[in-house]
Amino acid sequence: MIQSTQHITPLAFPFIEIEEAWALIRAYVSPLMPTTIPFQESLGHVLAEDVRAEEPLPPFRAAVVDGYALRAEDRDAWREVVGEQRVGRATEAEVGPGEAMWVATGAPVPPGADAVVEVERTEEQGTRIRPLYTPTPGLNIRPVGYDIAAGEQVLHKGQRIDPAALGILASVNALHVRVYPRPRVGVLSTGDEVVEPGHPLRPGQIRDSNRYTLLAAVQTAGGIPVDLGTRPDEVEALEDALEQGLRETDMVITCGGVSMGNRDYMKDILAQWGTIHFGRLRVKPGKPATFATVAGKPVFALPGNPVSALVAFYLYVLPALHILAGDTTWVHPQVRVKLAHPIHREPGRVEFQRARLRREGGVLWAEVTGKQASSRLLSMVSADALIRLEADWEEIPAGTEVPAILLNPERIFQLTGGLP
After folding, report:
1. pTM for the full predicted model
2. Which strand (E) or helix (H) includes residue 294?
C-alpha cells in the first residue's frame, strides 16, 4: 500500500501538448495478441493477417443474363435449342454448331458456347431461336476468376471487417480468420461523494454518471465494457479495484482522484505500480488526465468532472482502444468548420469546445452547445464535434475556420446530407 508521504499532484508532472500525448499513447500501447475465430463472428474485428482466395470466383464461366448460350461463329443464324442450364448444376452436354442452350443468370455456360444472347433479344420459332444481332465471343459471360482470381489478396491486415468484408470471407470460403480481439475495458468510478443512481443523496453527494457514460462510450467504440463499480477515496479500496481491473481486462479507465486534493490517490498508486507517461496536459478540459502503463496494460485516470472525463475519453482513450483492437492507423475523424458566432475565452491552453454543426451554403458552421463548464454534461448531449481553439486565441471572430473532431461521423452525414 502507498504511504501518505508519497502523495503526488499534477504539479509533479510537466505540461505537455496534446500532440505529444498522442505520440506517447502510440508509443506505449500495442495491439492485443491475435486470435482465430469463425468468420461469422468476425464483424467489427480487425484482421491480423491478409486474406487470399484459394479458388477463383466464379469457379466456372458464368452467364450474366437469362438467355441462350451459343457459338458466336454462327452469327445471327437460326439455332436448335438442345437443352437448358440452370443455376446450381452443370451439364456436360456441349453446344455444337447450329445449336443453343437456354441458361439462367449465374449458371455455368455449357461447353462449346462462347456467347450468351439475352432472351429478349432473340426470335423464337418452335424449338429454334436466332439472335436479333450478331453476337461476339465472350458476350455476357463472366470468365473464371473474373471477380476474384485464385491467390488474389482480397482483404488486408489491419482492415476492419464490415458487412461487405464478411461477405468476401464467405465467398472465398475463409471459414476461420485471424483477428485482434475486441479489447475488454474496465471502468472504475472513485470518490467519497459518488452515489449509485437509485439511492437518495445526502448533502455533498452526487450520482455516478461518469461510470455509465464511459461504459457506454467503450461499447460504442467497439470495446467490451467491464463495470468495476465505484470505490471511495481510500487507498486500499482503490488498489483492490485497480488490481481487479488489471486482472480481468486489457485496459482500465478510472474516473476521479487525479487532481490537487489530498485524497486524490490515483496518481500515487499508478506511480508506484507502473509508469506514468503523462499527468498534466496543456489542454482544456481535462488538464489532470493521466496515462500510465501497469504490467504492460494501459491505464487512463480521468478527471471527475463529467465533461472532462468524456472529452478525455474521446481525445486519449479512444486512440488507445483502436490500437489495442489492431487498428493502428486510426486517427480522429476531422473536418474544417467555421464559427457561427464569436467566442471569447481565456488563452493559455488548447481548448476543445462542444459544438453542433449545420450545413449552409456548402459550408459547415459550428455553434457551441451553451455553457462550456466541465461539469455540464448537457453540453455533450447535442454535440456533433469538438472544435479546437488554439492556446493563444482569446477573441475569436465569427467566420473563423477551425478544425473539428467529429464525435459521430454517421450522424453528421444525416444532419448535413454529406460533408463538403
Report:
1. 0.88
2. strand 290-294
